[in-house]
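hey m, so remember when u said the tokens were messed up on ur end? i reran from scratch. heres the input so u can diff it against urs
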Amino acid sequence: MPRPRTLPVRAAVLAAVVSVALLRAAPGAAQEIHKSALHDFRVVTVAEGLINPWAMAFLPDGDILVAERPGRLRIIRDGKLLPDSVPGLPAIRAEGQGGLLDVELHPDFASNRLLYFSYSKPSADGTQGATAVARGRFENDRLSGVEDIFVAEVWSQGRGHYGSRLAFDGKGHIHITLGDRQVPPTGDQSAHPAQDLSNHFGTTIRLHDDGRVPADNPFVGREGALPQIWTYGHRNGQGLAIHPVTGEVWQTEHGPQGGDELNLLQPGMNYGWPVVGFGVNYRTGLALHEGTMHQGMEPPVHVWVPSIGTSGLLIYTGDEFPDWRGSFFAGGLVGEVLMRLTMEGRRVMNVEQLYQRKGRIRAVEQGLDGYIYLAIEDRDGAPTPIVRLEPVARR
């Protein structure tokens, strides 16, 4: 007798089995495996649909906060981007490179719920902007009690080089990077605002967590110098990390056409912009600086020529990639690249390119799970994802 139902039933069962298998295998099987010297890894999408994600912060309950540069703070919960942004932010000048920028949890966030963020603050008439740092209490998916703890003396009509990376040092201080606001490096370069201690252009700042100036800051009591300044002579710091063992403060900053830098920040030091550097003029390709070295100016620990557009800096401490512990990870915008630097004390021993041409890497962070998270950005504002690196066991 014919058995007309046998093949359809078997096909249906087989299709169901295959579908389930694909669903279970998709997170691993669908991703390309990337090879590296010490760890093979895959890149897994965490959430999609972000617009110019600039920074991430990982909450104790597993949520991820993401700052979108156009002026929104978003929540990723259980792998989904919530549709509504967090209310309670102040007015933000979201033009050019400005907007909502970095976001950091206070070291005691679990008890005090304090969230810090940097942003481009509009002037009263809206014609100028400056980098500001504010804090507020984050509870029940909203911000309250928001107040500025620092507004930089970098007011300008320009729309770029806000700097604005934040890092806590574990000693009650917050460090802040500030850009030069794209003041042209022409004429007498020693007179450039980044070489002038009476303003905050091209500096890094060190404050108590409530905005007070520490008494041991290097320029406290010096006539003509602003006391918040920790270091100066910077162009645009877009990566900032505190070494978990030594407490050293490390920064990556943008050079011009060539000459991105990794710097070890030491109090009171001048890092040379625009007097010295390794880049050239954007338009002409001609020399821009007096040279690459100058007495009284700190040289970089590492230089990228050509530039990768450094953004985001992580010193890895997790368990998921044990052979990467102590490595520095730097993201790149222009190069769309993730770089791993092997360090020996204060020396770079090796540079490895891990991941490239998948979008502009704006931020690099270590999650509570020990994975490495990347905020991918599109220059034109198309939706982009948050992704993470997960290890692949070698056979």
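this time it looks ok to me. The radius of gyration is 23 Å. if urs says something different then somethings off w ur setup not the seq
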